[in-house]
Specification:
The complex is a heterodimer. Chain A contains 13 helices and no strands. Chain A has helices spanning 4-19, 21-52, 71-107, 110-113, 117-120, 127-167, 181-190, 192-212, 217-237, 245-256, 272-277, 287-291, 297-319. Chain B starts with a strand and ends in a 6-residue tail after the last helix. The chains are: A mainly alpha, B alpha/beta. The A-B interface holds A 7-8, 11-12, 14-15, 18-19, 111, 114-126, 318-319, 321, 323 and B 48, 51, 53-55, 71-73, 75-76, 79-82, 85-92, 95, 99-100, 102-105, 139, 143.
Chain lengths: 323, 285
């Protein structure tokens, strides 16, 4: 038996999914599909050009794969394959960033513009739950689907490579067992709470603009911070130093706009100690390392600021009266 | 019985115009109240205040709750149809029913499905594929399946053809309304609602200029058709309004003794629209 609050949240998030199925589900699926298709086309092109020029890659018996693999080889092969899965996820996550950005920007604006707000407001739903459901949909549900799509695309890519190699007499199927798809999925999904928290200033700001703007929320969201930055730069140029330019661009604009792009916390400064100490480049993606960004005060200050912006968005959602 | 809506000194200003100007009224349960007024008179503002969609000055209780502070609780017992075409365009019939069924504690899914079965709507249909009339059918099916105590309708039939309009009010009366429910309706199509209203409220420039039940309206106002020879006599009784038909004058009187009027000519009960025109004379001048 679900509690009423969870039940309400479940259906609100489900509603967001219904409305944004295109962005949340079909976009990552299509991007993954196109990525696989492009690779397939590349492989086919390679095969045909190779055949036209009489080049046949056939691997001999003395290739590296016939002797038993050392533990190091296995680990390397596994990491290579994990890398493929991470790369496909990375591509999809960039697309996810755009989806989440424009989703948040429209989430509290579109239904005011088409007046369907009045329908939602005729139901016994709290504005707090409504706004939070949009945060959950944009920064938990959407990245979850994107992570699954990314890894599935990676697996399809691996199968495609293995299939191609097997046409050339190179049997690598058994190597697939060394990949860690579940670990990759677990890593990606395990990062989602970090992502949602890191993105809070951005989701908060975008939702606030979305709830505030009478028209063109994008202008409010993007142009306003840039205009303020220009003014600051101008004041600083005149010698009246109000706040540091660098601080403003990095810790304000840098947090309220690109935060919905996964991995934007990987920027310089947050991982100085990690990047030198990591044994392997992929280790930076491991959860322990990823979460070490939480040790920085900026992370929590940003999250708090994000919550304040969200509170503003909730208040506007309750009282904005322009339909 | 406690009033469903009780307003005391309700005011709301938008920049420099008063949308509601110190308005007080009460609405009793089991009534169908027509809130009628010209464009910009404050009808929608009054409804928004009742629904907790806007802030205001003054006191307002709806079902004993404060719509500003207890909106979530209030909306379990209050439904509204703002006007046609406010259903989200992307939603499917199935999704809309599913969603309302799971978030509204007083929604009767079976009743909603029965109502939908009487229409041409199919579960997979999206709102954006529907005509205005079909959207209203869906909206009405959703709302009528909710056992609410107060239903607020703001221009519910705007832009619908006459078949849908008739059907709308017929459904509402036959399958929804009972003595435990209250309906507040605003509309410009006065002729279509006047026979279903139990109470009439005229609003003009943010003020209630008439608030009476239909029986009282029938007693208070009368229309007399007077020949040209006695027109001057009729004018002496200070009619609200005068118009000419086939060389005769029709006068509308407010609170003049029936016997006096019957001496002048044939006395009728005025239609709400004639009463409205007479009351709102000069609004746009």
């Amino acid at each position: 038996m679900k509690t009423p609050v969870l039940n309400e949240m479940y259906w609100l998030v489900k509603r967001e999914f219904w409305e944004h199925r295109g962005g949340f589900l079909w976009t990552p699926v299509i991007v993954g599909g196109v990525f696989v298709l492009l690779n397939l086309m590349g492989i086919v092109t390679g095969e045909i050009i190779g055949a036209q020029h009489g080049i046949h890659f056939m691997f001999n018996n003395n290739s590296l794969l016939n002797h038993p693999l050392s533990a190091e080889d296995m680990s390397k092969a596994g990491q290579m394959m994990d890398l493929v899965m991470y790369s496909t996820s990375f591509i999809i996550s960039i697309v996810l960033g755009f989806v989440a950005f424009f989703y948040c920007l429209g989430a509290l604006y579109d239904d005011r513009r088409d007046r369907s707000l009045l329908f939602w407001k005729s139901l016994p739903l709290s504005d707090t739950a409504t706004v939070l459901s949009k945060v959950v949909a944009g920064t938990v549900l959407a990245p979850f689907i994107a992570a699954v799509c990314g890894v599935v695309t990676g697996i399809v890519m691996l199968l495609l490579f293995a299939l191609t190699l097997s046409f050339h007499g190179l049997n690598v199927w058994h190597l697939l067992a060394y990949a860690h798809p579940f670990q990759v999925i677990a890593n990606l999904i395990g990062t989602i709470p970090l992502y949602a928290l890191w993105a809070l200033p951005t989701t908060g700001w975008l939702l606030l603009c979305s709830a505030w703007a009478r028209s063109k929320p994008f202008l409010w969201a993007a142009v306003l911070p840039f205009a303020v930055g220009m003014m600051l730069g101008w004041f600083n140029l005149l010698g009246t130093r109000v706040v540091g330019n660098g601080w403003y661009w990095k810790d304000v604009v840098g947090r309220i706009l690109p935060g919905v792009f996964p991995g934007s916390w990987l920027g310089a400064g947050n991982y100085q100690n990690v990047s030198t100490g990591a044994e392997h480049s992929l280790d930076v993606l491991n959860l322990g390392n990823a979460y070490s960004v939480m040790a920085t005060p900026g992370f929590w200050i940003g999250a708090m600021a994000g919550l304040a912006l969200l509170a503003g968005a909730i208040w506007l959602r309750r009282w904005r009266d322009d339909t | 019985m406690n009033a469903v809506v009780s307003a005391h000194g309700l005011s709301k200003r938008y920049k420099n115009t008063a949308a509601l100007d110190n308005v007080s009224f009460e609405i009793q349960p089991g009534r169908i109240v027509g809130l009628i007024g010209p464009n910009g008179a404050g009808k929608t503002t009054a409804l928004k205040a009742i629904l907790g969609l806007t802030d205001f000055q003054g006191e307002l209780g709806v079902l004993g709750l404060d719509p500003r502070k207890q909106r979530g609780k209030l909306m379990e017992q209050v439904c509204f149809i703002a006007d046609v075409a406010v259903l989200p365009r992307w939603i499917r019939v199935r999704e809309a029913v599913d969603f309302v069924a799971h978030v509204h504690p007083r929604f009767d899914r079976k009743k909603c499905e029965d109502l939908l079965a009487r229409t041409k709507l199919t579960p997979d249909m999206r709102v954006k594929q529907m005509s205005k009339g079909m959207i209203v059918q869906l909206h009405l099916a959703l709302v009528m399946a909710i056992d609410a105590r107060l239903l607020v309708l703001d221009e519910p039939t705007l832009g619908l053809d006459i078949l849908y309009r008739k059907q709308f009010y017929q459904n509402l009366l036959e399958d929804y309304f009972d003595e435990n429910k209250t309906i507040i309706v605003t509309t410009h199509q006065v002729e279509e609602v006047e026979h279903i209203l139990t109470d009439l409220m005229f609003i003009r420039d943010g003020r209630i200029v008439l608030d009476a039940d239909m029986d009282a309206v029938g007693e208070r106002f009368a229309e007399v058709m007077v020949g040209a020879e006695r027109a001057a006599e009729a004018r002496a009784l200070k009619p609200l309004h005068e118009r000419q038909v086939f060389g005769k004058s029709i006068f509308l009187f407010d609170g003049v003794a029936r016997a006096q009027l019957e001496a002048l000519g044939e006395v009728r009960r005025p239609s709400v629209s004639d009463l409205f025109v007479a009351t709102m004379k000069g609004t746009y001048a």
